[in-house]
Amino acid sequence: MRRRRPRSAAPSWAVLPTALALALTGCAETPGLPPMPTPTGLPVPTAVPLPAGSTALAPPTAHLVARPLAGPVGGEVRLSGDGYPAHGRVVFTFRGERVGDTTADAVGRFDGVPVRVPDAFRDAEPGDRIALGATSGPSHAEVLFVLTR
After folding, report:
1. Where does the UniProt annotation place the signal sequence (predicted)?
2. Helix or strand holding residue 21 (H, E)
3. Residue 80, CA distances (Å) to 4, 38, 126, 128, 137 in order
4. Which of 54, 78, 113, 116 is most deeply packed, by most CB within 10 A?
């Protein structure tokens, strides 16, 4: 007489969609890779590791939004953000080149601060992506800016 093998609870074809769903929702991050920007220009928040037994609160996650997300050299970009130190000086950079600064308000926000795309990118090709950053103390966020003609 032949014995029947017990069936698993989930069919094998169900494993792939589950793994894909986990990867798309961020539950399966690859260590060491920077967070990808979301369509709104905001970086995906990542956990801040704390020492074991620490009672310190993790610093708030900084966010940066650029409007527009593409433009020519010399063009104006307006920056808004939150999650920065209250009343902290926020420095803006294009690929590390300082292009401006502002002071965050009492809750760590700033809104519509104008900066210009530096002339240093005049020789860059249309479509080149440049990291646009905002830093204040330990708080930092970036968005990608696309150069146009």
Report:
1. 1-28
2. helix 15-24
3. 64, 15, 25, 22, 17
4. 113
Can you tell me the distance from the alpha carbon of 132 to that of 142, in angstroms, rounded to the nearest whole number? 5
**Considering Cα of 123, then 129, then 133, then 138, what sign does the dihedral take?**
negative
- Specify the range with the lowest mean pLDDT, choosing from 22-36, 74-88, 95-109, 110-124: 22-36
**Tokens read off for 23:** 């990867």
How many Cβ atoms from other residues are within 10 Å of residue 109's Cβ?
15
Q: Which pLDDT band holds residue 1 (cuts at 50, 70, 90)?
A: low
How many Cβ atoms are within 10 Å of 118's Cβ, its own excluded? 16
Cα 121 from Cα 96, distance rounded (Å): 12
Lowest mean pLDDT among 10-14, 45-49, 54-58: 10-14
CA separation for the pair 37, 69 (Å, rounded): 12
